[in-house]
Amino acid sequence: MTARMIMKLRVDTARRVTPRVLHLSLVHPSRPELPAWTPGAHVDLRLPDGRIRQYSLCGDPAERGRYDIAVKREDDGRGGSAWIHGNLRAGDIVHVSAPRNNFPLAENATRHVMVAGGIGVTPFLAMARHLAASGADFTLHCCARSELEAPLLGELRALCGGRLVPWLSAEGRRFDPAVLGRSEPGTHLYACGPQGLLDTVRAHAAGAGWADDRVHVEVFRPTPDLSFKPEPFEARLASTGEVLHVPADRSLLAVLRERGIAMPSSCETGVCGSCVCGYRDGIVIHRDAFIPVRDRQDRLAPCVSRARVSVTLDL
Ligand code: FES
């Protein structure tokens, strides 16, 4: 996996689409085209103080000249969205990575069922645009408190028509996972939104026979695990046999870098997948929200994951 290209892009437009959501359209100051992307992709925004935040691209993948994102102001968040809301204006320059897609549409699916919660609707805008244009079979369940707080609902209605199912809790329509039904051949399930909604969708899917490889979940914020007590462990490099000690208060990623091993990273919170590498043996304590269960036997995210006693890395 290689480090991602960082571009200086100009904020072309900044408009508030709900009281708490800012829609930004980013363009290159001189080039007419930006790197291509596919529905479900996100970019990293690098803020002036070094913080990195991921945002799904919600525009049209066929429109190569701009990246559209929507940022919800999280007052109880880590400060990145508040900075964006408070500071970014049309004409400003921002540092933006090339797109990466951790949440692609399943190419072999015959039907797509999507569940969006609040600002989690953003990747589905691009997906719905693509699926509608290609005549695919899809349904988008869109959960929000009210119409006023549902980002880009008008645009979604125009795109999806009757395939959009709004769930507005303030109007007494709280999302009912039973509508997702049982797993059917060819149908893939996607979810993006607050942790509670993702847990609800996962629990329903597990109980209704959906195979793991047909359930796709996008996570942008780590789930805090306050009870976790890190322990020291040893990391062996398969290529040289060298053994590195990882103290309780350091991440495996930090120790690898200290040893001079160039490791890419972005979020460093276990949600983006930039740092993921292979491993051969050892009991790994997976603490990321990115690697699918089926791949956890041989891949780990060294920014957050650790091992019991020792692990051999494919490095
Ligand atoms: S840097 Fe994002 S998962 Fe490790």
TrEMBL record:
Start and end residues of each 2Fe-2S ferredoxin-type domain: 224-315
PROSITE patterns xrefs: 2FE2S_FER_1 (PS00197), 2FE2S_FER_2 (PS51085), FAD_FR (PS51384)
Pfam families: FAD_binding_6, Fer2
CDD domains: fer2, PDR_like
InterPro entries listed in its UniProt record: 2Fe-2S_ferredoxin-like_sf, 2Fe-2S_ferredoxin-type, 2Fe2S_fd_BS, Beta-grasp_dom_sf, Cbr1-like_FAD-bd_dom, FAD-bd_FR_type, FNR_nucleotide-bd, MRET
Phosphoprotein found in the keyword field: no
Keyword NAD: no
FAD-binding FR-type domain ranges (all copies): 4-106
Keywords, alphabetical: 2Fe-2S, Flavoprotein, Iron, Iron-sulfur, Metal-binding, Oxidoreductase
Family matches, as PANTHER family: CARNITINE MONOOXYGENASE REDUCTASE SUBUNIT (PTHR47354:SF1), NADH OXIDOREDUCTASE HCR (PTHR47354)
Protein name, as recorded: Oxidoreductase
Organism annotation: Azospirillum oleiclasticum
